[in-house]
């Protein structure tokens, strides 16, 4: 199923996002009218003060609505997208399915928020580390522009990697949410080439879509307010809010589906190399925290086995002789050990 098909078939979630964005705009507009009325009573100085208050008030309204409602709508949408990409079908009652999957996977919204924040912070820290490597080559003529453009591609891709990792948690149901999210970050790191290529295409789409959105919103609203003789500032602010709603509900959803389609296409077939965990832990304190929380989750599969697949049934288990010929990775520190090692040579933990 293509990204375009998934976008159209999961339209109920996009409509829900439009509704939440519309509610944000409505409350912000009402707050603006009230505060500007109060400021008008106190003259120009009062207008400036109430305008500053309105900016902070609008930010608070957006935070409350998007944090407690928007995040859960996005999580349900991600669950349905993951199902569509991996199975090729959309659940009959997709809204109910998404809600059930989020409740089953994360138990409470607080767990979902914690996983999402840790993943987002981790990939940002990893991005900064990559950026430092690029900056070290700035002495080469023209390299600054190349690395800057590359980092821009990466920043777009990393902007949606948390959604991709959350999608992987819905796919990898036999593991805890923190463990699956940590695996998701590693899978992203191992498949950076196809995902970076998708990010480059996504960048072009973002620019084109935002130009269309800006012209389609700012021009008619500006003309309307000019004809009616209303405040140009109010027209600009209203246009900004509406453009943000369209971007949040439609543009961001389409980009998220594009990235998840590529990511979920390679994730199920990716064999995780556990030595990459220690490297990412060294680059990001937040990833290390995510990794540690994954190890603390109850009923987790052994970290000593390399690979993402669940433990096979006894009938399908590989021959013991084959396991002895492969290196063993420590579940505590990720260090590589010789076959048959009982205790890790790096940290001493039992294998």
UniProtKB/TrEMBL annotation:
<feature type="transmembrane region" description="Helical">
    <location>
        <begin position="20"/>
        <end position="42"/>
    </location>
</feature>
<feature type="transmembrane region" description="Helical">
    <location>
        <begin position="48"/>
        <end position="69"/>
    </location>
</feature>
<keyword id="KW-1133">Transmembrane helix</keyword>
<dbReference type="Pfam" id="PF13240">
    <property type="entry name" value="Zn_Ribbon_1"/>
</dbReference>
<keyword id="KW-0812">Transmembrane</keyword>
<dbReference type="InterPro" id="IPR026870">
    <property type="entry name" value="Zinc_ribbon_dom"/>
</dbReference>
<keyword id="KW-0472">Membrane</keyword>
<feature type="region of interest" description="Disordered">
    <location>
        <begin position="298"/>
        <end position="319"/>
    </location>
</feature>
<feature type="transmembrane region" description="Helical">
    <location>
        <begin position="206"/>
        <end position="225"/>
    </location>
</feature>
<protein>
    <recommendedName>
        <fullName>Zinc-ribbon domain-containing protein</fullName>
    </recommendedName>
</protein>
<feature type="transmembrane region" description="Helical">
    <location>
        <begin position="231"/>
        <end position="250"/>
    </location>
</feature>
<feature type="domain" description="Zinc-ribbon">
    <location>
        <begin position="329"/>
        <end position="350"/>
    </location>
</feature>
């Amino acid at each position: 199923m293509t990204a375009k098909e998934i976008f159209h078939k999961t339209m109920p979630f996009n409509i829900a996002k439009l509704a939440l964005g519309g509610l944000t705009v409505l409350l912000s507009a009402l707050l603006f009218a009230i505060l500007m009325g109060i400021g008008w009573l106190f003259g120009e100085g009062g207008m400036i003060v109430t305008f500053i208050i309105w900016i902070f008030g609008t930010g608070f309204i957006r935070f409350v609505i998007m944090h407690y409602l928007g995040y859960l709508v996005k999580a349900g949408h991600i669950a349905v997208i993951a199902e569509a990409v991996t199975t090729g079908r959309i659940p009959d009652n997709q809204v109910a399915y998404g809600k059930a999957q989020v409740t089953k996977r994360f138990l409470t919204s607080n767990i979902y928020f914690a996983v999402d924040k840790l993943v987002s912070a981790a990939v940002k820290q990893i991005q900064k580390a990559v950026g430092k490597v690029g900056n070290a080559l700035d002495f080469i003529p023209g390299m600054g522009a190349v690395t800057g453009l590359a980092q821009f591609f990466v920043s777009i891709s990393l902007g949606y990697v948390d959604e991709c990792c959350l999608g992987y948690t819905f796919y990898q149901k036999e593991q805890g949410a923190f463990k699956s999210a940590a695996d998701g970050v590693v899978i992203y790191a191992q498949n950076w080439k196809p995902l970076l290529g998708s990010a480059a295409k996504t960048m072009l789409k973002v620019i084109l879509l935002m130009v269309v959105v800006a012209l389609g919103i700012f021009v008619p609203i500006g003309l309307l307010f000019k004809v009616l003789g209303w405040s140009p500032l109010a027209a600009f602010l209203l246009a900004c809010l509406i453009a943000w709603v369209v971007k949040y509900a439609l543009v961001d959803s389409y980009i998220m589906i594009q990235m998840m389609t590529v990511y979920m296409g390679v994730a199920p077939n990716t064999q995780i190399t556990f030595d990459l965990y220690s490297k990412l832990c060294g680059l990001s304190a937040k990833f290390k925290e995510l990794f540690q929380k994954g190890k603390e989750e109850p009923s987790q599969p052994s970290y000593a086995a390399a690979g993402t697949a669940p433990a096979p049934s006894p009938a399908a288990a590989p021959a013991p002789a084959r396991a002895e010929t492969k290196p063993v990775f420590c579940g505590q520190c990720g260090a590589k050990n010789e076959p048959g090692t009982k205790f890790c040579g790096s940290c001493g933990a039992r294998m």
